[in-house]
Amino acid sequence: MLPEVGKIDRASFDKTIFPRLGRRDSSVLIGPQHGVDAAAIELPDGKVMVVAEDPTFGMPVLMPYFGWAIVHICASDVAVLGVKPRYMTICLMFPPGTEDTVLEGIWKQVHDECEKLEIAIVGGHTGIYPGIAYPLNGGCAVIGIGEKSQLTPPSYARTGDRVVMTKGPAVQTAGILALQAESALTEVIGLAQTEKAKARFLEISVVKDAMIAARYAHAMHDATEGGLLNGVYEIAAASGTGVTIYGDRIIVPDEIAGVCSYFDIDPLISISEGTLVITAAPERTGELIDALGQEGIPAWDIGEITDGERVLIDAEGRRNQLSPVAVDPFWNAYFSTLEG
Fold first, then answer.
1. Which residues contact 30 (CB under 8 A, 6 or more apart)?
2. Which residues pair with 245 in a beta bridge?
3. Reported confidence tier of residue 184, pLDDT bands at 50, 70, 90
4. Which of 160, 313, 158, 333 is nearest to 263 (CA)?
5. What pLDDT band is residue 339 in, cutting at 50, 70 and 90?
6. Considering only CA atoms, which of 11, 6, 15 is closest in space to residue 227?
7. How far apart are alpha carbons 40 and 38 in whole angstroms?
8. For residue 203, what are the domain limits?
9. In degrees to the nearest 10, what's the CA dihedral of 237, 241, 247, 250?
10. Could you give the 3-state DSSP secondary structure of residue 243?
11. What is the pTM of this model?
12. Residue 322: how many CB atoms within 10 A of its CB?
């Protein structure tokens, strides 16, 4: 049985998709695998092409930011491999009756953000289709061209690396839920905290984080579904290593903690596009954190890559085994805001 919402589970991927990937091609350096959101294809003269694709569905509360989100979510997957995004194709689908002003607004955001990130839009498809409730990015592909030596996939983590987290966990969760349940949250955590949580939505991009971190990183991964701990697990699994994460080093900003407490969800395993997980050599970790901080991106050393178990040591010193997150708690929280 497939999940009711969100990405398919690991077992379904391994059973149905992974064994059937079309023609084998030796130029594919990084193909479909758990914890890797972009492919890398070898080109002549030591170059690589990095390709990522993502859908974005138009939650009503996010429509004012929809074009912005499409660009940054897709571009982030390329940047996480250490290569600057350069080209984009996009498939936009709209329900019947959509006003032309909706297309104009979304497209202006797409254009503006691509200009800021120096991405050229080179193709795509736009149309009106029945059966769609809200505007939908049916698939945005972003391409970057770089050097093979620049690649920083999750599988490149090395034993002894420090594990660094940017921004905090549950960034995307807090931003979306604060926008969706603004009135209820204001009554419980206050207007100031609710406004700060809403602003977190515009932090879901890791393009800037990744382009800074690429100078220091061995491996990088954006903490999407399953959140921070799932992202950490996927790095260790892809690299064939162990990892130790220290719970008392994981900073959960107050507004994020407030939103997660209201919805009774664990911020460490809830979707967090915008949280970049980085592994780097110990001697470079201080420089990495300083470089991020100089650009206004907070970052913390939260653990290390090991040759042992994959564990979270909580504040009381208990060792908890890390494993894939089966169901991200964000989705139940989000759909609960739509009831009634």
1. 36, 38, 39, 40, 81, 151, 153, 155
2. 303, 312
3. very high
4. 333
5. low
6. 6
7. 7
8. 154-336
9. -80
10. strand
11. 0.93
12. 20
Residue 9 scores a pLDDT above 60: yes
Q: What percent of the chain has pLDDT over 90?
A: 84
Half-sphere exposure of 85 (CA within 13 A, CB side): 34
> What's the residue count for the chain?
340
User: How does pLDDT run across 59-85, given as a tens digit for each residue?
Assistant: 777 889 999 999 999 999 999 999 999
* 60 neighbors 107 (Cβ within 8 angstroms): no
> Cβ neighbours of residue 99 under 8 Å, at least 6 residues apart?
none
Amino acid at the residue 123: G
Contact 188, 196 (CB under 8 A): no
Write down the pLDDT at residue 152.
97
Which residue do the tokens 């949580």 mark?
197
Domain count for the chain, please give it. Answer: 2
| Final residue before a domain boundary, out of 116, 150, 184 | 150
The CA distances from residue 253 to 166, 170, 228, 250, in Å, are 12, 10, 14, 10
Alpha-carbon 307 to chain mean position: 26
Do residues 101 and 188 both lie within one domain?
A: no
Q: Specify whether 128 is located in the same domain as 177.
A: no
Dump pLDDT digits (tens) for 263-309: 999 999 999 999 999 999 999 999 999 999 999 999 999 999 999 99
The last residue of one of the domains, among 131, 150, 169, is: 150
What is the residue type of 131?
Answer: G
Q: Yes or no: say if 69 and 76 are a contact pair by the CB < 8 Å rule.
A: no
* Cβ atoms 255, 198 nearer than 8 A: no
Identify the burial level of 14 via C-beta atoms within 10 angstroms of its C-beta, where 0-12 means exposed, 13-18 middle and 19 or more buried.
Answer: exposed
